Task: inverse folding
């Protein structure tokens, strides 16, 4: 299959030279999916934590959303996250609603729902440092027991010609999680007993496999798995770990790569476990590491520091200071706060996920090809 993808990409390049008409016909066709259901952490959360009373992981204040049409919305970015951009590329109507918003029901859910929760992880205990979060298990439960019955009722009530027992195969199921299981769990200082890094990673992957199977069992067939980003290069790590000396902490990056290798393998192995399913692995780590290591080559000038002001009284803080200062040129920064990318980076990641022909970006196909299956 990989050879076919490479060949199709070479063909597309040739068509660009031969004819603008053919480029339009073969490369700009509209993706055919009804919508997306999104699960994961703050990198893909679009406001669920706003509705969690005891959560300390919220981005519902300025300067978050400074470049977003709705202002501060709960997205951990100055503008869009990768899910917003992916939705635009898939021609979905509007932004996905967050599950926790009481208004997310009825006709509002026809094109998908975002269940992600900032601070959450694959393991239930991950995220306790952020107070109240919706774990991945809880997110999947919310989909299966709340949203899915409502969606079925909506489609039947509308007499949807495409409604059938396999209707969920027309939706993408997007998962972006895992980083917090290392940052807010495994590598938290003061733990006296913990498994080896290999054992912990195997635990995460086996748990995630079970969670994906739960979604498969209720009808999910098209999965998009985002890798962990270079967690050893985020500003809060670079600035506050003495051993970093301003450099990336490769021990953390090695943990991310260990997980990502297993996640990529799932894109192939799960097809055997889940017949009829198709998975795309988006290598956010590879994409972002290039921006961090060689920012000037990709249109950035700063690949290491936060664009927004972080609370000085909390050096380990990840989130922007409420009402704090913000850099004037957000498009020049890789990171907006102590962990999360800027709108410009999210756009590039989503764009590569959607239509890159490089297997090191999206494997074994891209999201556009997945959507058209």
Result:
């Amino acid at each position: 299959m990989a050879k076919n993808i490479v060949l199709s990409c070479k063909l597309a390049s040739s068509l660009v030279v031969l004819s603008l008409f053919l480029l339009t016909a073969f490369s700009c066709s509209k993706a055919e999916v009804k919508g997306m259901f999104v699960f994961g952490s703050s990198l893909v959360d679009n406001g669920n934590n706003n509705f969690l009373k005891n959560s300390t992981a919220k981005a519902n204040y300025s300067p978050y959303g400074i470049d977003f049409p709705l202002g501060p919305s709960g997205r951990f970015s100055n503008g869009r996250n990768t899910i917003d951009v992916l939705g635009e590329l898939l021609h979905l109507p509007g932004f996905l609603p967050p599950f926790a918003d009481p208004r997310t029901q009825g006709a509002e859910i026809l094109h998908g729902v975002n269940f992600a929760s900032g601070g959450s992880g694959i393991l239930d205990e991950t995220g306790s440092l952020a107070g109240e979060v919706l774990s991945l298990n809880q997110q999947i439960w919310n989909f299966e027991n709340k949203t899915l019955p409502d969606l079925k009722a909506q489609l039947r009530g509308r007499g949807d010609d495409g409604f059938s027992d396999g209707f969920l195969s027309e939706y993408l199921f997007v998962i972006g999680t895992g980083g917090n299981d290392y940052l807010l769990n495994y590598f938290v200082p003061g733990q006296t007993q913990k498994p080896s890094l290999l054992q912990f990673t195997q635990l995460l992957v086996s748990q995630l496999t079970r969670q994906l199977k739960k979604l498969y069992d209720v009808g999910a067939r098209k999965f998009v798995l985002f890798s962990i980003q270079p967690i050893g290069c985020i500003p809060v790590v670079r600035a506050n770990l003495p051993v970093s000396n301003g450099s990336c902490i490769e021990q953390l990056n090695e943990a991310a790569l260990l997980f990502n290798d297993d996640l990529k393998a799932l894109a192939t192995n799960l097809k055997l476990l889940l017949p009829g399913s198709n998975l795309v692995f988006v290598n956010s780590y590879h994409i972002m590491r290039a921006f961090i290591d060689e920012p000037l080559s990709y249109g950035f000038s700063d690949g290491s520091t936060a664009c927004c002001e972080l609370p000085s009284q909390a050096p380990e803080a990840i989130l922007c200071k409420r009402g704090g200062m913000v850099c004037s040129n957000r498009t020049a920064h890789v990171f907006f706060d102590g962990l999360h990318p800027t709108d410009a980076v999210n756009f590039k990641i989503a764009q590569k996920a959607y239509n890159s022909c490089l297997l090191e970006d999206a494997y074994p196909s891209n999201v556009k090809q997945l959507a058209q299956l």
Notes: The longest strand covers residues 35-40. The two ends are 14 Å apart (CA to CA). The mean pLDDT is 89. The chain is about 40% helix and 10% strand.
